[in-house]
Write a structure and sequence with these properties.
It holds the Pfam family Peptidase_C1. This is Procathepsin L-like. Keywords: Disulfide bond, Hydrolase, Protease, Signal, Thiol protease, Zymogen. Belongs to the peptidase C1 family. The chain is an alpha+beta fold. 32% of the residues lie in helices and 14% in strands. Strands 1, 3, 5, 6, 7, 8 and 9 form a seven-stranded mixed beta sheet that branches. A three-stranded mixed beta sheet has the order 2-4-10. Strand 7 and strand 8 form a beta hairpin. The chain is globular.
């Protein structure tokens, strides 16, 4: 007798393929994609279902890129490791920002004030100046909040010491629960900074490696602390001008975005413009590492180098795209 999971997969597959069969001309492409991303499926029904989802995503990508070639879009999409997942599944897997944080109750918070007279460079890229570590991968864990926090802390530490040291996201996952973060089930970058304040430091990635699990006790070692922050700064909500000046004068800034769109999930190149319609909902955190004049932000993600432009996105400026300036923060040494 078939198990419930097998029956469910068969039913889903039948629904997805009522009007179309799998394309035999894509067999080689499908095999190559599975090999590239180390995809394996135990059941034939599961692989058939995932193949059907992958083909739908591939068609969406090809249709979008054809329109981009016609000048209808400013960015292109590309197949990546999310290819065999529906948009709903991707959102469920990657949702990593907890709702309803009361920032007004936070202590040791500095509000960044923009200036009408401040002269800043037309272009900034902190990667070129040594502030930014390699793109990382949060994997199956909803820990984006920890990655954006370590990115901002790494930049802060480099600015202070001239040393670029990869910091431990696992340290924050294990030690941030009493500040309201929930490990792989989501959290807030601001609360990660509070954790570093409370611990008086954070360990390196090398000494406290990432495994993407959230059932450990805190294993922070004060004697091996790399850096610390005394408080944090917040960008006034929705103020892109303030965010621009903060990136120019402070360094990489942690930001929260609405990442629910399938176009976001399969972004590959160009200047991304948010296609999502409806109310803004912050679901993901990233790291702004630079900008180009008032055209676009340079944003580091934590979905591996297989996503986007080697792990980065160029996001349009001027309309608070995806809510990028709605909840932006940085540590203060």
């Amino acid at each position: 007798m078939l198990s419930i999971s097998v029956v469910a997969l068969a039913w889903l597959f039948s629904l997805r393929t009522l009007s179309t069969a799998l394309d035999p001309t894509l067999e080689g492409t499908w095999r190559d994609w599975k090999a590239t991303h180390s995809k394996e499926y135990e059941l034939e029904e599961e692989e058939s279902y995932r193949r059907a989802v992958w083909e739908e995503n591939l068609q969406m990508i090809q249709d979008h890129n054809q329109e981009a070639d016609q000048g209808k879009h400013s960015y292109k999409l590309g197949m990546n490791h999310f290819g065999d997942m529906t948009n709903e599944e991707i959102n469920k897997k990657l949702y990593c920002l907890l709702p309803d944080l009361d920032l007004a109750s936070q202590k040791n918070v500095v509000t960044f004030k923009s200036s009408e007279n401040l002269q800043i460079p037309s272009r900034v890229d902190w990667r070129a100046k040594g502030f930014v570590t390699e793109v990382k991968d949060q994997g199956e864990c909803g820990s984006c909040w920890a990655f954006s926090a370590t990115g901002a802390l790494e930049g802060m530490n480099f600015k202070k010491t001239g040393k670029l040291i990869s910091l431990s996201e696992q340290n924050l996952i294990d030690c941030s629960k009493q500040e309201g973060n929930n490990g792989c089930q989501g959290g807030f970058t601001t609360q990660a900074f509070v954790t570093v304040q409370q611990l008086h430091g954070i360990n390196s990635e090398e000494s406290y490696p990432y495994d993407g699990l959230d059932h450990y006790d805190c294993r922070y070692e004060a004697e091996n602390s790399v850096t610390a922050c005394s408080n944090m700064g917040l960008i006034p909500s929705g103020d892109e001008k303030a965010l621009l000046q903060a990136v120019a004068t402070i360094g990489p800034i942690a930001v929260s975005v609405d990442a629910r769109s399938s176009k976001f999930h399969f972004y590959k190149s160009g200047i991304f413009k948010n296609p999502w319609s409806g109310d803004l909902q912050l679901t993901h955190t990233m790291l702004v590492v630079g900008y180009n004049s008032t055209r676009y932000w340079i944003v580091k993600n934590s979905w591996s180098r297989a996503w986007g432009a080697n792990g980065y996105m160029f996001m349009e400026q001027g309309s608070n795209p995806c809510g990028i300036a709605t909840l932006a923060s940085y540590p203060i040494p």
